[in-house]
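If it is no trouble, might I ask you for a protein's amino acid sequence along with its backbone structure tokens?
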Amino acid sequence: MKKMILAFVALTAIMCFTSVDAKAQTFPLKITIIDANTGEPVPGISVFIQGTLTGVVTDINGEATIYCTMNDVLGVAIVGHQIFFISVRQIIANGGVIYVWL
């Protein structure tokens, strides 16, 4: 009986001091911003994860990589235009391309 109680106490102590990381798995998402009218890449576009301070800016080829989760929503901010939001799932379904109308 003492061994069972000791084992129970030890197991409880291990469970108390062990944390379970329930964070969603992040991954790098390569995106390309394309002008829907011309088919040309658009540099200098800000892309950020909604509700966070995580963001990137597209390079001269209209490309950027952002670390996100499947449940994230990305905001796309273009100077002089309204910010629009798109889900990571939609971006992946579209091959990593985000089309914008300038």
